Amino acid sequence: MDDAPTVIARAPGACGELVLRRAxxxxxxxxxxxxxxDTRAGESERLLVDAAAxxxxxxxxxxVGGLGVGFSLAAALAHPASARSSWSNASPP
Length: 93
Description:
Layout: E1 6-13, E2 16-23, E3 26-31, E4 34-38, H1 43-53, E5 60-65, H2 71-78, E6 82-88
Parallel strand pairs: 5-6
Antiparallel strand pairs: 1-2, 2-3, 3-4
C-alpha cells in the first residue's frame, strides 16, 4: 500500500494556506507548510477533555477551542457531564 501523502484540498486561511492530505487510511492538516495534526492518534485530546469535564457539574456546556480533526469534540459530546458542547476556531470555516 502506498502511504505517500496525496493532497485532497487547499484553501487560504488566516495563517496561510491550509492543506488537507490523505496518507493511506489517515488524514493530515498542514497550515502554511507546517504539519499540525492527523488522524493517527487522538488519545491526548480525549484525555484532556475527560480531565476538564471531570471537574464540571452535570449538565454543563463544554467549549472546545479549535475543531482540529474532531477527537476533542467527539469526546466532549460523549462525556456524561457535558449536556452541550460548543467550539471556537481561530480561522473562520
